Every structure is written in C-alpha cells, then in structure tokens.
Amino acid sequence: MAARYNGHTVDELEQQDIAAALGGDEAAYARLVARHQATVARLAWRFTRVPAECEELVQQTFVEAYFALDGYRGDAPLEHWLARIATRVGYRFWKERTRRGADVPLGDIDPAAPATDGPADPDPAVAAALVQALLANLAPAERLILTLLYFEECSTEEIARRMGWNRAVVKMRAYRARRRLKEIAQREHLLERLGWTS
Prior knowledge:
The chain has 198 residues and is mainly alpha-helical.
C-alpha cells in the first residue's frame, strides 16, 4: 500500500523503515539498503568498471545516507535522494583519481582498425572502454555531466539538483565537454572508429 509523504507517493513499508531507521533500528536500515542496493550499484558502475571499487562506492553511499537520513525531507522518493548521494560520492571518486592520475591513457586501448572495404564495427567492450578513457580526459565536472546526460539520461535540471549547481552552469559545461571530447577524439584519430562522423 502506498501513502502520501510530503507530497509524494511513498510505499508504506518504506515509510515505516525510514521512521524506524531514524529511531536507531539497524534492521530497518538494512531493509532500505537491500531495497535500493541494485539501483545504487548500477549508478556506481558509471563511475568505475572495477568491481571492488564499485562495491566501495555503494558502501560509501549507504554510509553517507545513514548519517544524513535525518536530513531526508521526503520531498522526493528515497531512490532519488540516494541517487544524489551516489552521484556526489562518484564525483569525489573521480576527482581523487584525477589528482592521482589513475585513469587509463588512451594509448593503452586499441580499437579495431577499420576494414579496407569500409569502417568496421568496434568490439562493444573495447568501444565502451575507449569511451570511458575519452571521458577520463575531461575535467571531473564535465565528465560527470556527460555521464549523467547520456548514460543516465538525466536532464540538465536533474543534474543541477543532484549536484547543487546552477542549471546554466550545467548547460555551459555540457557544451564545453562535448566540444572537448570531440577535439580529443579527433586528435587521437578515433572519430571514425567510434562512428562519430557528424
């Protein structure tokens, strides 16, 4: 059964678990984690393709959510609130990797060369790794915006809300990020191999 909670429809069991978790019931919080773990893990996978790192991001998200649960106002579904936390956790992870220079250089990934009778379709796994490596060459904020826009299909308004940024700033960064990504792909002679002909 669903109930209205601060203007949103919230599952009654979820509402009870939130209240119980706020009262210190660890089992109730464990049920919230179990209910939303797959969604958070899917989002964390956007920030790293290394299973151990992904698991760490998921754990960090739920630890931060636990300590911030009293700040959950119910003005959005809990899943959306958790997505905001997971996005910020992932963004911090990227910023730290950028400081350490830990991303894979483009030269380490070899997409299939085009066939003589026309461009070949690159192996999907190689193409995905290449796109991730291209994105890693962007500033973390630009990388985040393109990831949320194109992989999570978020609007600029949702990105601004998740990150606490101005929507105009998100639009400007998205424009710059797309232009920068194309410049990098062009410099590395990857546009045609990835099928980015326009």
